[in-house]
Design brief:
CATH architecture of the largest domain: Alpha-Beta Complex
Distance between the termini: 9 Å
Largest sheet: 7 strands, mixed
Radius of gyration: 20 Å
Number of domains: 2
Shape: globular
Helix content: 25-40%
Structural class: alpha/beta
Order of helices and strands: EEEHEEEEHEHEHEHEHEHEHEHE
Length: 334
Amino acid sequence: MRAIVYEGKGGCEVITRRELPMPVCTPDALLVKVHATALNRGDVLQREGEYEIPAGQSTIPGIEIAGTVEAWGENVTGYSKGQRVYGVVEGGGFAEFCLLDHGMANPIPETVGFEEAAATAESFLTCNETLFELGGLARGNHVLIHAGASAIGTTALLMALHAGALPICTVGSPRKAEALHALGAVAAIEYKTQDFVAEVLRLTEGEGVSVVLDFVGGAYLDRNLHALRLGGCMVATGLLDGLSAEIDLLHVIERRLQIKGSSLRLRPMAEKRGVNERFRRRWLEPLARGEIRPVIHAVHSIVEVVQAQHVMEANQNIGKIVLTVRDAEGQSLL
């Protein structure tokens, strides 16, 4: 089996292609012939040595896949060879074959291709869990979504709109602001030139938002809390700028604010299956009907992974960067 691996830590020069042993199917897993995967910020951080892979998980990058079932473990039932599936994996996605836990596998609708399915898995699970399960976002609520043009950000925007909520996003450029307005954002705040707290309060007539979805971390904590309405909730799901920050507890107490955190990859598998099941209950049918679809910035061949990572590192993407692993005839591109 051929795969993309990192030989050491550093820049894109550590990315290489290697022949590796085929994954051995464990009792609860499907062996999937990978047709498409997608690039996530964690893949770049892993290459740079800034992200430690949890014990027992694959060091091959790639945490979401779409493909066809090749085999399955002794505890798995209900699947057939060649069945199209997608889902979040514990690494190993940048390869010709990958293991996918049966509780994380989702059927690909007939109307959806492998690339679109691969772009759906991680961001939809993350956004459903953070916005609705943890944040309690409801119809008519305002929500502030940081990094609005990212894959998570665009997914959160579309999910919020589908639920009847009112998304306000932060972005880093006029180009991204224009793209998010086109997707339906109530507002796209250019954080480099605008005070996002002041803009949120202006847009909500001084009330603040019900939910803040944050990827930045410590650098935004105080401002995020001041953007929340009475009883609002901030959900942290990334730490791009600061692992810690001072907090005004009096403000939290007086405003009855909530601060929650979420990480998918660090959870035990039983909890991950629960996250996937909650995603399935709410979103499988709307996805199958085409009511909501992931925003795809670009589709690259897996052998163009260096180029794809350069785009992500430069923050040029609007939506998901997808990597195809096989051509239309199912032949490997690795």
